[in-house]
Amino acid sequence: MSGICGYVGDAPPGVLAAMLGAIDYRGDSEDTFVGPGVGLGYRWWRGRPGKAPGIWRGPNGDATACAGALVPSSADPAEHLATHPVDGLDGAFAAARWDAATGTLTLARDPFGVRSLYWFQDGATTLFASELKQLLATGRVPRTLDHAALHKYLSFSFVPGQAVPIAGVRRLLPGHTVVLRAGASPSEPRPYFALEERLDSALAEQPKAVRRIRALGLAAVGHRLLGESEVGLYLSGGLDSSAVAVWLRQSGASVRALSLDFGEHSVEREQAELVARSLDIPLERVVVRGKDLAPILDDLVYKLDLPFGDAVTGPQYFLGKAARERGLTAVFNGEGGDQLFGGWTSKPMIAATLYGDLYGDDTPEEQYLHAYHRFYGHEAELYTPEFAERIGGPGPTVPANVVGERERAAMSDPGARR
Q1: Interatomic CA distance for residues 77 and 50, integer angstroms
Q2: Is the C-alpha dihedral spanning 288, 291, 294, 296 positive or negative?
């Protein structure tokens, strides 16, 4: 729960205050650094372990701001980032490092994208922030729709990649850095971390693979405890959150579990109770009904920052509210397990490949899109030809039957697409 922002170039004095004010829920303390052609802002909760106590300032006019935490933990994550290379870092962080000698500012995002970083070039000035709403608060970002990004949202229920639904704003990809310089376009983002998909012969035998996963999971959880006296756990009773519960207990953490309760519509409620009882973890149910969602919808949308079409997002808001009311400042959960271990979004694609012709001659990429069960494949019924023309040419992006011959001819000219 912290955030950063800033600019390279020239900006009015109130820009940092506007961006920090847009995330007042992310901390009780502020720090700013202003130098020739640069400004940095940082908001955080004072006293949280593992968090930078402010913006790090170097002897030669350098400065570094870091939102989030590094793994293994550092007494001052901002100072560590200022004095060590980014390569090899782990954790959940968004950071900005100003080099006064070269007049460059480097943005860095954690390997799995837990934290976000956005930038927008406004003439000779580039603004950046860890939340989109901070850029909008400056009044310098035109609120123009990026139609291609909207199409991605309708296909995935989130917006993947660098684009966001507001034209001109870009998001740094996970595990990447980008260099900003006044009066120049941002550099091409550079990866410092990449996942590699390969078969490991040392893990061909299932018992060895299981032991390896358990060891890695235990180490990852232990590194992220960061000295908290008590941590929370969102426990659904499913495999992922239950595994995290085991690793937390094996790490010796004091844990309090919270679990959603939808009444008679609940699933895995009994499993969550069984896991908590077996591990001697106190469990509290957080009751959520459909009628509870409407009053918090505006605040939920504001806090989300980007549209996210997962139906559990609203109920998870109440989990976060309950965690804060109970004084929990760090919470673990099982999010990301499906993505790392080939979960539900891959299953329909695999089934289509193995059992044949469910989607005709679609490529694996198209089968993956079908697996989301969103707008993909139904654009002809849902999109106007004008909207289809704005988002790109026929193919995996937009099926050919969405547009007519005139529109296809226009889209074949890259200069006519926008």
Answers
A1: 7
A2: negative
| Domain-embedded: residue 393 | yes
The list of the chain residues with pLDDT below 50 reads 394-396, 398-418
For 9-75, the DSSP string reads S---THHHHHHHHTTGGG-SEEEEEEETTEEEEEEE-TT-TTS-SS-EE-TTS-EEEEEEEEES--S
Tokens representing 8 are 């390279």
* CATH number where 214 lies: 3.40.50.620
219 and 294 housed in the same domain:
yes
Q: Which residues contact 393 (CB under 8 A, 6 or more apart)?
A: 408, 411, 412, 417
Q: Tell me which residue of 47, 52, 46, 48 sits closest to 33, measured CA to CA.
A: 52
The DSSP secondary-structure symbol of 166 reads B
Give the integer Cα–Cα distance in Å for 288 and 414: 49
* CATH number of the domain bearing residue 144: 3.60.20.10
Q: Could you tell me if residue 275 is inside a domain?
A: yes
Q: What is the pLDDT of residue 357?
A: 64
Please count the structural domains in the chain: 3
DSSP for 364-396, written as a single string: HHHHHHHTT-SSTT-HHHH--HHHHHHH--BTT
- Give me the residues paired with residue 90 across strands: 71
pTM recorded for the entire structure: 0.88
Q: Do 128 and 247 fall within a single domain?
A: no
Structural element, H or E, at residue 3 = strand 3-8
The residue among 278, 306, 340 that closes a domain is: 340
Q: What is the DSSP letter of 265?
A: G
pLDDT tens-digit readout, 330-365: 999 998 887 777 776 666 667 766 765 666 667 777
Q: What is the dihedral of CA 85, 89, 93, 98, to 10 degrees?
A: 0
Q: Look at residue 348 in the predicted model and tell me its pLDDT.
A: 65
Last residue in a domain, options 340, 365, 386: 340
Region of 52 on the Ramachandran plot (φ > 0 left; ψ -120 to 50 alpha; else beta): beta
Q: State residue 321's pLDDT score.
A: 95
What domain range includes position 409? 347-416
Contact present, 364 and 353 (Cβ < 8 Å): yes
Give the separation between CA 44 and CA 68, rounded to whole angstroms. 9
The tokens for 341 are 């271990």
